[in-house]
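User: I'm writing a tutorial on reading structure tokens. Could you give me a worked example: one chain, its sequence, then its tokens, then a sentence or two explaining what the tokens reveal?
Assistant: Sure. Here is the example chain.
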Amino acid sequence: MHMLHPKQFVVDEAWIAFRLNGAPIRTVADGDFNCIALMDAASCFILSSDLFPLSIADADQLPVRRLLTQAKRHKQQLPETLFVPKGDIAEVLVEEALRQKIHVVSVLESEVLIFIGEARREFAERFGDGHDDA
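And here are its predicted structure tokens:
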């Protein structure tokens, strides 16, 4: 596949679902989490993000629906396409996107780094890389 670029898209045509954190976010009380974000591919605007347990149950659709609902609030519509880096996102998000008639495209992380790289850097600077060695 060719490299993707924001200029290829119009706002709300495509979203990218990705993990903001580099390493799992560790909590003593509730275990490890990933911070999953939905970004508009044209504007690189993060529409929504939430923490998901690493051991998210496939049956637990509620947090995923909430993530999509929050993202939809900006323009009152879902995208035609959702790009998902291989091995990055819980399958539960892919299943919910398909259920809502969104075309899901699996991509290599390197193909979407131009979109998500800055957001990941900012997240790491603000919250650290997920390790609690501070």
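What the tokens reveal: The beta strands are 14-19, 25-27, 31-40, 46-53, 81-85, 103-107. The CA atoms of residues 16 and 78 lie 12 Å apart.
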